[in-house]
Design goal:
Elements: H1 14-29, H2 33-42, H3 48-58, H4 65-75, E1 79-82, E2 98-103, E3 115-116, E4 126-127, E5 133-134, E6 140-146, E7 152-157, E8 172-177
Antiparallel strand pairs: 1-2, 2-6, 3-7, 4-6, 5-6, 7-8
């Protein structure tokens, strides 16, 4: 994206190029060029809706930013199942030694990770990172855990997981309580 031209457009510093192209097209499509220059200079880059309007009005992309985002979200893999228990269960057997999640499609088999959930590190079960493994055809991922009875646990399967073509997993929170 930054240094080489190893992309479909054969352009170096692609990030700068796309920004320049959006601005140039926005200016060229504007009926009032002075207003267009002012809008470009005064654009509030923290206002996502304003940026999306400008990009859409540049007509650089084949679809609106909102439609492209919706298309992308529909294409993202998801966690479809936890093999050992139902997510949200209050009666998980504390003797379980691993948790396996299954994905809606095969992932690349090397981008992975586990994050704390919103409740923080105190609710994350003890996990052995050395024992983590991918399942058949990279459609599942297993994490060794050490659980205690009568505990509330939570962690996230994050978007660091991705498909071969780089589409990131929709993050998924796993939350459960162990039986006494």
């Amino acid at each position: 994206m930054w240094g080489s031209n190893n992309n479909e457009l054969k352009i170096r510093d692609l990030g700068y190029y796309i920004g320049y192209e959006i601005c140039e097209r926005y200016y060229n499509n504007a009926s009032d060029k002075k207003v267009a220059i002012r809008e470009l200079i005064e654009l509030d880059f923290t206002d996502r809706a304003a940026i999306e309007r400008l990009v859409d009005q540049s007509k650089l992309l084949p679809k609106s930013v909102a439609t492209l985002r919706e298309d992308y979200e529909r294409s993202r893999p998801t966690v479809v199942e936890i093999l050992e228990f139902e997510n949200g269960s209050n009666t998980v057997d504390p003797s379980i030694e691993s948790i396996t999640v299954r994905f809606s499609q095969a992932l690349n088999g090397y981008h992975a990770g586990i994050d704390f959930g919103p409740l923080g590190k105190d609710y994350c079960p003890k996990m052995d990172p050395r024992g983590r493994s991918w399942g058949e055809e990279n459609q599942s991922y297993t994490v060794p855990v050490s659980l205690e009875p009568n505990q509330h646990y939570q962690f996230t399967i994050p978007s660091s997981f991705r498909t071969e073509d780089g589409i990131r997993l929709q993050p998924h929170i796993i939350e459960f309580k162990t039986a006494r």
